[in-house]
Amino acid sequence: MKNILLLTDFSDPSKNAIAYALQLFSNTECTFHVLCVQDSSAYITDDVVSQATTSLYDSLVNKNRLKLIDYVAELESEFDTKSISFKVIVDYDSLIDAVQQNVTSNDIELIVMGTSGATGAKEVIFGSNTLQIVRNIQCNTLIVPKDYEYQHPKALLLALNPPDLLSGRTATDFFQFLQAHTLKLHVLRFTEDTERQDVHDQDTDVLNTQMHSTSYQYHQIAQVPMVYAVGTYLQTHAIDMIGLFAHRETFLERLFLGSATTEMCKHAEFPLLIFHT
Q: Where is the UspA domain (predicted)?
C-alpha cells in the first residue's frame, strides 16, 4: 500500500495537481493523505478579538476540516477511486513542519503539489512553497504545473547532473516508478568533457540491466545549462514528465548560484518528479 501526501490550499494549482495524481495512480492501491495547513505565521491578533468565544482550534482548523471533507467527497464522486482511500488532515503549523511531521508519521513515499511558478528576486532568495518543500523535505516530490491537463504519460525525460548516479536508493526508486507506469525513458546526461566516456559506460551498463528489453534514448551534453538543453529537447521529442535527482544546496549556493533543480521548478511546463539523494 502506497502512502501519498497531497498538499492543498484549495487553490486551482493544488486542485489540478491532486486531479493529476488521482488519475496517475488510479490503478495503484494507495492511501492519499490530503493535507491542508493553516500557517501559524498568518495568525493575527484580530482573529482573537473576532473569535473571542471560540477556541483557537475551532476558529483556525475546524472550518478548513469541513471544507476539506467536502472536497474529498467531490473527488470520490468525480474520479475512479476503487483502489484508493483518503485521510483528511488539517494542521495549524508552518508548512515545512506540518509536511515533515506527516511524512514521518504516515510513512509517506511521495508528496504531490501544484505550482504556479516563481517570479522575482524574492522567490530566488526565500523560495516559493514548492521550492521550500523540495529543499527542506527529504521525500520524493511530484510537482504539477498550473493548468497542465492530465494525459497518460508515455515517456519520461531524466536529466542527470554530473554528481547524479544511477545506483543506490534514489535510482531504485526511480526505476521502480518507471516500470510501474511502463514509461519510455529518455536520458540527458550533463557532463564535463573529460568524463564523458567513463560516465557513458557506467550509465549504459546500468540502463541495459534495468531497462531489460525496453528501449531508451541516452544523450550526453557538455557546457550547456540544464534548463536550456531540457527546453530544447522538449520541443523536439514527445515527453510527458521530467525526472530529476535533487541534492541539498546551501543558502549561499541558492542565493548566488542557484541550482538546476531550482531553475527547473521555477520554469516547469511539464510535471516534475524529483527524487532525493
A: 1-145
